Amino acid sequence: MNALSSSTIESSIAVIRIEHAKKNILNPDLLKEIISLLNEYIGKKIRCAILTGSGDSFSAGYEINRLEGDFSVKSELSEKNKTFLQQSCEAVELLPYPVIAMIDGFCIGAGFELASCCDFRIASPESRFGITPAKIGLVYPSSGMKRIIRIVGETFARELFLTGRLFSAERMHQRGFLNDVVEKEKLYDFTLQLAGELCDNSPVSIRGMKKAFATLANIYEFSAELTALTEESLVQGDLSEGVTAFYEKRKPVFTGE
């Protein structure tokens, strides 16, 4: 069952918490809730948002048995040639106020990309990070790859995507993905202090500079050839084998077909 809770602190800070029973796994219903909630806050007194998870995860990734349909821009679930994951990432990036990802636990795959859309990323030392499409036979969407390359650089992005390894918070901090690593018991207070500092700044400046960052990034400008790489991987045998192996808890046997 999907769950998304929200609250406000002193009317200016929104706290949005993903509370999915299965390690905060993402799917269209949950992503639509995130988009709707973020849009609901526009025009109100909110000046900063904190996006976080519950339990032992920020988000452990996308609901794997829905990849074939949900990751296609041709799906009935997509709009304007963008999947719901892409739409939710865009919603975060285009918000007129800063968003802080507060991470405690697993931040994997689509959850990793969702965190990458935020303006700041703060994590506990116990957190673990990874992008794992190579483990299941998926060509990750180019928009997500470009976003992550822009943050960590191409050298480390290749290591992330091509190995599918999980990395420590310390390593992600060294590579520029995380702004800070803070002890678990101090994580919330540290994040709240940063949010308060951001709320004191000019909304006009913040709004304009966030729009400038989004425009300069040009995340969704790609050729049809790049989009086709993901589309083709969704119907090939490697993805079917990867998903089956995941549920059977065994090592996949990929054939490259």
Tally of individual domains: 1
CATH-assigned homologous superfamily: 2-enoyl-CoA Hydratase, Chain A, domain 1
Structural class: alpha/beta
The helix tally amounts to 11
Provide the residue-averaged pLDDT.
Answer: 87
- Percent in helix: 40-55%
CATH architecture: Alpha-Beta Complex
Overall 3D geometry?
Answer: globular
- Compressed to H and E, one letter per element, the order equals EEHEEHHEEHEEHHEHEHHHH
The CATH topology assignment is: 2-enoyl-CoA Hydratase, Chain A, domain 1
Distance between the termini: 34 Å
Number of strands: 10
Oligomer status: single chain
- CATH class division: Alpha Beta
Biggest pleated sheet: 6 strands, mixed
Taken as a percent bin, the fraction of beta residues is: 15-25%
Strands ordered across the widest β-sheet = 1-2-3-5-7-10
The stretches of 5 or more residues where confidence is low (pLDDT under 50) are none
Radius of gyration: 18 Å
Question: Could you list some keywords that capture this structure?
Answer:
single chain; 257 residues; alpha/beta; 2-enoyl-CoA Hydratase, Chain A, domain 1; 6-stranded mixed β-sheet; 4-stranded mixed β-sheet; 11 helices; 10 strands; 45% helix; 15% strand; globular
